[in-house]
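Problem: given the chain below (152 residues), write out its structure.
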Amino acid sequence: MRLTPERTLKLISFWPPFLVSGVRVRQFDLDAGYIVSELRTTRRNANYFGTHFGGSLFAMCDPFYVFLLMHKLGRDYYVWDLRSTIEFRKATSLPVTARFAVTAAQLEEIRAAAQGGQRVEPCFTVDVVDPEQNVIASVTKILYVKKKKSVS
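Solution.
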């Protein structure tokens, strides 16, 4: 059984850190360039006040921009997380979602900047929202992208 990007996203909800924290991938279309993750409050992921634990909110945003760029750029590029920050805006115990998207224009800009083999550090921001679209947290991800040297 080959582990395709699609199969990985279907199975990632069973990855121990996501399974314990309650993170689920709810929707994705790698070709269209988006992934939606969800987090529901449970006894295992609530903080002292009964709202979402900040670490779980952060975890639900961790790997998805890397997955999208790896899929869209292909095997000719290295794609890694470089650094991340989170800004907590509002506490809630309601289910929350985050929608990660990479546009064609962003991809073209990254490809052009990495064409000569130099390191590129694209920055993406995603909002974690409740069902009424209130922003609960904002996560900024800075990635490392570099075109691999071709072996001739």
